[in-house]
Specification:
Elements: H1 2-19, E1 21-23, H2 30-43, E2 49-53, E3 60-63, E4 71-75
Parallel strand pairs: 2-4
Antiparallel strand pairs: 1-2, 3-4
Amino acid sequence: MIWALISFTFYRQIIFSFSDARAITRAENPEIYNIVENLCISRGLAVPNIGILEDDSLNAFAVGWNVKKSWIVFSR
């Protein structure tokens, strides 16, 4: 029960620490922001927070409990 509460509260920090992902800003990578925004607008979805994982493999993952706390992370 305690582990469930911890993981529910700190899910982003846990996942980002295991994957070495980090949050990015629009100024850092406007191309990714534009792609994600256009996809979300075309589907009527809220734009999630965006992160980057420095890795040679092509990969992406999404995490989050709700619209305000959702993240999509891309590797590059």
